[in-house]
Amino acid sequence: MPPNTTAFSSLLAVILAMLSITLGASLAKSLFPLIGAAGTTLFRLGCAALLLSLVFRIWRMPFDRRTLLGAIPYGLSLGAMNLLFYLAIERIPLGVALAIEFIGPLTVALLGSRHRADFLWLALAIVGLLLLLPLRTAEQTLDPLGAALALGAGVFWGLYMLTGKRAGALLGAQAPALGMWVGALLVLPFGLGGASEATFTLPVVLTIVGVGLLSSAIPYSLEMFALRRLPLKSYGILTSGEPAMGALMGLLLLGEQLPPAQWLGIAAIIVASMGTTWQGGRRRTEPA
């Protein structure tokens, strides 16, 4: 494939992955009144686990100590991240939750840094967070519990990045499927009480399958395609736009109106994430 075509197809894959994730989250919110945020998380993870297991044929791999060491920490962080995120978007707008959650991977990127520029990006992210949180007038307040849940999801997103790297090295392409099963087991006690058997009509079941596809199976495949072809710096900069896309999806599909200060807060966190990724990538390419 020519370089220009490869770059364009990779860019398109990242954009489609972000669109799929935010569409999946928007669709998931429609299930909350029926089966609850925890129930939606459970069935989404279970559906995605089943789909990925069939694709990657996980029954062919040995279930030994190595498998458990890779899958359990990764799956626990994945399950907690998804549960807290869905509980957060039950209370606060999608774009705001995504922006707050981005603090997690941003913190991971900054851990151990001794460069002044990185602390400027951290300061910008903190400013963005303050613009999002409920510290102003009554018209622009944010649900404190929703914001705290999004921050918790961010913490587990950071852990997901760290454990996911190890799981990928130990388990390869089967890691996400195994992690989804572990995550589903973690969420099981919280999600079972959210729905009755009568709730599961055909439209609800189809919506659950759609959420599983849009939130996991499709974006995972697209991101893997892009990661094999894009430098990590470029990939990181592109995915930093996810909170903005989430805010747009929330506005268009869910009618979630955000005040100007919260749009500025989302923009500040996006710029901080892009800056951190760009700065880190530039250092790795500098001669020693």
TrEMBL record:
<protein>
    <submittedName>
        <fullName>EamA family transporter</fullName>
    </submittedName>
</protein>
<feature type="transmembrane region" description="Helical">
    <location>
        <begin position="169"/>
        <end position="188"/>
    </location>
</feature>
<keyword id="KW-1133">Transmembrane helix</keyword>
<feature type="domain" description="EamA">
    <location>
        <begin position="145"/>
        <end position="276"/>
    </location>
</feature>
<keyword id="KW-0472">Membrane</keyword>
<dbReference type="Pfam" id="PF00892">
    <property type="entry name" value="EamA"/>
</dbReference>
<dbReference type="GO" id="GO:0005886">
    <property type="term" value="C:plasma membrane"/>
</dbReference>
<feature type="transmembrane region" description="Helical">
    <location>
        <begin position="94"/>
        <end position="112"/>
    </location>
</feature>
<keyword id="KW-1003">Cell membrane</keyword>
<dbReference type="InterPro" id="IPR037185">
    <property type="entry name" value="EmrE-like"/>
</dbReference>
<feature type="transmembrane region" description="Helical">
    <location>
        <begin position="119"/>
        <end position="138"/>
    </location>
</feature>
<keyword id="KW-0812">Transmembrane</keyword>
<feature type="transmembrane region" description="Helical">
    <location>
        <begin position="34"/>
        <end position="56"/>
    </location>
</feature>
<dbReference type="InterPro" id="IPR000620">
    <property type="entry name" value="EamA_dom"/>
</dbReference>
<feature type="transmembrane region" description="Helical">
    <location>
        <begin position="200"/>
        <end position="222"/>
    </location>
</feature>
<feature type="transmembrane region" description="Helical">
    <location>
        <begin position="234"/>
        <end position="255"/>
    </location>
</feature>
<feature type="transmembrane region" description="Helical">
    <location>
        <begin position="144"/>
        <end position="162"/>
    </location>
</feature>
<dbReference type="InterPro" id="IPR051258">
    <property type="entry name" value="Diverse_Substrate_Transporter"/>
</dbReference>
<feature type="transmembrane region" description="Helical">
    <location>
        <begin position="261"/>
        <end position="278"/>
    </location>
</feature>
<feature type="transmembrane region" description="Helical">
    <location>
        <begin position="68"/>
        <end position="88"/>
    </location>
</feature>
